[in-house]
Amino acid sequence: MHAGDGAGDRPRVVLGVAGGIAAYKACELLRLLTESGHRVRVVPTAAALTFVGEATWAALSGQPVSTDVWTGAHEVPHVRLGREADLVVVAPATADLLAKAAHGLADDLLTNTLLTARCPVLFAPAMHTEMWEHPATRANVELLRSRGTVVLEPDVGRLTGADTGKGRLPAPAEIFAVTQRLLRRGDLGPDLAGRHVVVTAGGTREPIDPVRFIGNRSSGKQGYAIARAAVARGARVTLISANVALADPAGADLVRVETTEELRVATLAAAEAADVVIMAAAPADFRPAVFAPGKIKKVDGAAPTLDLVTNPDIAAELGAAKREGQVLVAFAAETAAIEQAVASGHEKLLRKRADLIVVNEVGVGKTFGAERNEAVILGADGTRDALPELSKDDLADRILDTVLARLP
């Protein structure tokens, strides 16, 4: 990273803001960047200033704001800003801005900066659904991605007016999370560009009656961290989420499920066109044999008997149907000591026909819901990578590094 002029080693970020109603949300992204120690220069388009004024950007960033290449021309800002940046993020990125960036048009300071940037570039699009789905926009997005630019998939939700659909700007906190992965990776680039990665996360619930269920302690944090890391590395990500209380990761296509059977159906469908399938969810091994349509009552204080049946092994089913070149990653959550857990994990690796299995020790106060994780990654080729305790974000990248080495 570049050293700042009197700013120490703070990462230099250019925050581009295009002219859409979601420009107001970029204020929150700017706050997250500055408060975490980044030196941010906001470069809005002229249209963006109709939504949020110049004084707001200057006050929040502590830096001058301009939209044209003539202000401070002696410093050659249209070249200097891009050259000195560690990251350029454009949020929101409109259809017009994406078109200009894809075709190298440079009629203001932001588009000139994009042409001179030699650092990672991230676009967070926001527009109406019809604009996002238009063939011209899709072609521009694919062109940008083919050049190594990370273009997030927009969220689905409320747009301007009464409209609802795909095109909503992802939550600023989730865009911020992607910027941190990009800055952490530096110039390594989007090495999963063009790949489709399917990730499962969370814990399934098997209903006993309308108010009770069998479940587990999985928080989904590791799966969500893997999804975020894959997005930052340029992949198209499908995240199949079971019963989590986490914010939707920016740029991932989210599929919500509840039961193991719903997880199975969604994962098998998504895996058909996937390059990588990472089974980080914790599906329930058992479910009640019979679902009671009404709440089960206590009778004379006696507890009812609950008959269980075994749920399907989704990872084993994926392993049996795995295509040539597809990489399958399973997880093994074990309560045993690590060597016994590794032995059990190796047996599961072979039985499920997975390429990799991530083995970790779980229990009360361990792994579930925590921010850090310690794991051993076993490979079907006999490799064993024992990782120290890492943040779940860093572990996600280590898992993806291992996956990448096995992709054709």
What low-confidence regions span 5 or more consecutive residues with pLDDT below 50? 1-7
Indicate the radius of gyration in whole angstroms. 24 Å
How helical, in percent, are the residues? 25-40%
CATH class of the largest domain, anyone?
Alpha Beta
Please work out how many helical segments DSSP would assign: 13
Which band does the percent of strand residues land in? 25-35%
How many β-strands, per DSSP? 19
CATH architecture of the largest domain: 3-Layer(aba) Sandwich
Query: Given the helix and strand composition, which structural class is it?
Result: alpha/beta
Strand order of the largest sheet: 12-11-8-13-16-17-18-19
- Any idea of the CATH topology of the largest domain? Rossmann fold
Largest sheet: 8 strands, mixed
Total number of distinct structural domains: 2
Broad shape: globular
Query: How far is it from the N-terminal to the C-terminal residue, by CA?
Result: 31 Å
Cofactor: Mg(2+); FMN
Pfam family, one: DFP
EC number: 4.1.1.36, 6.3.2.5
GO molecular function: FMN binding; metal ion binding; phosphopantothenate--cysteine ligase activity; phosphopantothenoylcysteine decarboxylase activity
Structural description of this entry:
The protein is α/β, with parallel strands linked by helices. The chain folds into 2 domains: 12-188, 3-Layer(aba) Sandwich (Rossmann fold); 196-404, CoaB-like (Rossmann fold). It contains 13 helices and 19 strands. Helix 1 links the parallel strand 1 and strand 2 (39-44). Helix 3 crosses helix 5 (109-116), helix 4 crosses helix 7 and helix 9 (221-232) packs across helix 13 (392-404). The chain is globular, with a radius of gyration of 24 Å.
